[in-house]
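Recap from last week: sequence in, structure out.
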Amino acid sequence: MMIVFKTVITGIGATLVMDLWSWCQKHVLKVPPLNYALVGRWILSLPGGTFYHHTIASSPRMPGELFAGCVFHYLTGILFAFIPLLLNGPVWLSEPSFSAGLLAGLLTLFAPFIILQPAFGFGIAASRTPHPWRARLLSLFTHMAYGFGLYVAALAIAG
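Predicted structure tokens:
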């Protein structure tokens, strides 16, 4: 039970680091991060049978979409925090490794590239966006920030 609790805390911490990166990306680099209201719009449209959108931005807004998107973002961050545990076993929580954290961050790229971006109408790995390689690079940096956050959070609770 303690492993699950520590992993949940690690996931929350890593997601906070990812959000800090997104804030810096927006305010320092002047590059807009993912709008979590769009994630919420997608989540809230699933019960109605809509998985794919022509473009999520042109889909009608839904009440509570920002809240739903933020909750989904943190739940996903918690779920993905189990990846380094699967890679390294329980030793990850007592002796976290930088490489396992970054590898886990890299592995989480499959979610936006294969699920979220196509479902939003952006194509596989943002192939239908105006600047696919820019979008891919920004996703990579964001998910590497998450992987770094996994390492930092695991280090903090191991200490």
